[in-house]
Request: fold
Amino acid sequence: MIPAVVYAIPAFVLLVVVEALSYRFLPDDEERGYELRDTATSMSMGAGSQVVGLPWKAVALLAYAACYELAPWHLSPGSVWTWVLLFFADDLAYYVFHRAHHRVRLLWASHVVHHSSVRFNLSTALRQSWTPMTTLPFWLPLALLGVPPWMILLQQSFSLIYQFFLHTERVDRLWRPVEWFFNTPSHHRVHHGSNSVYLDRNYGGILIVWDRLFGSFEAESERVVYGLTKNIATHNPVRVAFHEYAAAWRDVRAARGWRDRAGHLFGPPGWTPKAGG
Reply:
């Protein structure tokens, strides 16, 4: 099956153009807006992710199907409760996936692509990884719960479509109850911030309640500085896609022992061996 997000791509591109034009005719000195090379890089990363992602979805579908066959029961897609369970289970799976991809360097090497822009606009949402293989384990439990594989893929697409609209500076804070329960542009601006107070915060997909429950929530306060703590200063899509893998490999080769090698791969980004260790 073709993921629903693919059908949304023309709308994504159109909305990027509309937002870019809004900066042209309604500029805001406090918002960074668009820059041609940055936007082109984001679009290139998005196109590449679809080239890799479509065949990978077939592999994921087979893995979900295998787990689904092992499930002790099969939930009915005709039941509204199956969809309610899927909504919350998928969103929790996304939270765990997202948090892990910020806290384990080997996973971060895939996800860092999405954070590599120093701008924050709708095109940033399209700046996606070319190595989606690290996502699979986080959704296998849903198939083991008896959720049909096609429903898992469909809900993943719905979540990604929702998250596209979070990548904007043009929307201020929303109605307080919405801000409390749902991920919003304000919350997601925090997530993309390199400010020390914003690092590793607001991992939610559609809901922000997981961050509130698990202590990773941070409200937007000081002005957000977008990008990485050490920006890569390149618009080359290949370097954007693989620079952190190359950096991790250099650290592993320079490490003195297996413990340090493991730390460089499975420790958090920025991990270094203890002095004298």
Remarks:
- Residues 153 and 277 are 45 Å apart (CA to CA).
- Residues 36-70 form the longest helix (35 residues).
- The two ends are 51 Å apart (CA to CA).
- The mean pLDDT is 95.
